[in-house]
Amino acid sequence: MKKLETRRNNISLPVRYPSGRAEDMAKKLTDISIKKIRPDPAKRLEIPDAGKPGLYLVIQPSGKKSWAVRYRFNGKPRKLTLRGGFHSLAAAHELAQEALGKVAKGRDPAAEAPVAPPRVDLFKDVAADFIKRHVKPNTSSTYSRDLERRFVKDVLPRLGERDIREITKLDIDELLDAVADRGGGLSANVIHSMLRSLFIWSVGEGFLDASPMVNVKRPLKVSARDRVLSEDEIKRLWLACEAVGYPYGTLAQLLLLTGQRRSEVSGMRWDELDLDRRVWLIPGERTKNGEPHEVPLSAPSLEIVNSLPKIKGRYVLTFTGDYPVTNHGAAKRAIDDELGAIDHWTLHDLRRTVATGMARLHIPLQVAEKVLNHISGTLGGIAGIYNRHDYADEKRQALEAWGRYVLSLQRPAENVVTFRAG
């Protein structure tokens, strides 16, 4: 690191440049140029001000700004951080001049600076700041209310009055264990995710140097194969999808109504749909087993498809018409913002929910497997070779019954007709 020394009142003032390159040479700062400087998320920046040698603008990775004065005293480099938060450029010049004046008189301003009392940031205050500045601007009101409720109920009673810097991995483990022990394993997982986000944010904002969540495991290992949405969750999901709308909300609704795979639904093309016959034919190149798969469109599915915007292009669920909606993570986040917290569900869980729901409606297993285009189970092996029945009528009956059931959860008084074989 190169240094350029100037002389003022016989005091040596080092001006430090990050790399020694010409473009990094000190420039005279202005209020406008200061506003335009962007933080570096990977490191702290110290920018010298040629208008006041020895004065530096300090910018943390979080974007927080402050001022510091560097000087030499008794031949050794010293640094004084200007107290009182971020000052205007004129005020920073005045304070820097005052500090350098002391140096010229043989005094060390850093040694004379009052010792600041130990900083205390209570967890409850940081959490409130996190919700106000990060959660509410970036999520739905439903989600932020749910997060606040969980903090008030489970987190603040244990950690609220603690300095956030004193909270350890052990404290978090004990909190999560307490929630899980009362039968809330999935709730403990949700709180784990919430705390992880809060502590990462706190590091970025300068409250912490490192997150205590490192190596804190989720209390409950959730098996994706077992997750099925309850009736209440299906109802809430449907309402959230209606609020999100096209294309992300529509994607989840069609996943729930048809039981097909994410890639199959998100890649749906207009030329695959025969709306007169009320069927969707997925070509073999888009199915997992490589076989064409015909999906009857139930009344709710058909109503949704008929209501979709006709964007020029081949794809049904799209922003441009030329490319399908494939960002399933963005779809999930958009729905979650409206949905609030449902414990660890995924879009793929909707397919499993359809299979389980059909069993609840007494739809024969082989029909459900045909709907889902499974080639194992009752239709695998020898049975699959000799049983060439396409189950077209049975699949339509099954999906119509399932569609009525899903809609009945939005209108509880509506009767649901279960599947009847034959």
Question: What does this molecule look like?
Answer:
The chain is α+β, with helices and mostly antiparallel strands. It has 16 helices and nine strands. Helix 8 packs across helix 12 (328-339), helix 9 (248-258) packs across helix 12 and helix 9 runs parallel beside helix 13 (349-360). The chain is elongated and about 100 Å long. The termini are far apart.
CATH level-1 class of the largest domain: Mainly Alpha
Helix proportion: 40-55%
Characterize the main sheet. Answer: 4 strands, antiparallel
Say which CATH homologous superfamily of the largest domain is assigned: Intergrase catalytic core
Our count of domains comes out at 3
What proportion of the residues form beta strands (DSSP E)? 5-15%
SS-derived structural category: alpha+beta
Query: How would you spell out the order of helices and strands?
Result: EEHEEEEHHHHHHHHHEEEHHHHHH
Describe the strand arrangement of the main beta sheet, using strand numbers. Answer: 3-4-5-6
Q: Roughly how many Å is the radius of gyration?
A: 31 Å
Low-confidence stretches: 1-24, 377-388, 413-422
* Overall form: elongated
What value does the average pLDDT take? 83
CATH architecture of the largest domain: Orthogonal Bundle
- State the distance separating the first and last CA atoms: 85 Å
Number of helical segments with 4 or more residues = 16
What is the third-level CATH name, the topology of the largest domain?
Answer: hpI Integrase, Chain A
Number of DSSP-assigned strands: 9
